[in-house]
């Protein structure tokens, strides 16, 4: 089975870590507490190995058990934080490539979401759910 075809037995959560150098890492897990501890012990992503975890600042429980769907939520959070802090300060999701590729992907997603707004049945509830977390509405601003 390919990684993206994985279906877990519980909903996947998206988490946001603030790192020592004022950078941010966005990840996903069905057990956020365990995964954050792995990051703290140097067993997480290479970005968190190079930049130790300062704090867990946000957790969002998705409504999906499918890895491929959770990756979309994860990318939304990455976009939200890139918009607020810049691509150099944010890693995670499918944005783990070079900063030039991250900026390009961010522009692509932003344009895609703006186009979705023009559709008769845009996924508005999804955008509102993701953007309304803890009063940080950057994705909502993209959508409006």
Describe the model.
With 144 residues, the chain is of the alpha+beta class. The protein contains 6 helices and 4 strands, in the order E-E-H-H-E-H-E-H-H-H. A hairpin with a 4-residue loop joins strand 1 and strand 2 (24-29). The chain is globular and about 35 Å long. Mean pLDDT is 76; it is low at 132-144.
What would you say about this model in short?
The chain is an alpha+beta fold and 144 residues long. It has helices at 32-40, 46-50, 67-85, 99-117, 124-131, 138-143; strands at 13-19, 24-29, 53-61, 90-92.
Rounded to an integer, what's the Rg over CA atoms?
15 Å
Instruction: Give the ordered list of helices and strands.
Output: EEHHEHEHHH
* Domain module tally: 1
> Mean pLDDT score, rounded?
76
The structure class reads alpha+beta
Overall, the morphology is: globular
Count all strands and give the number: 4
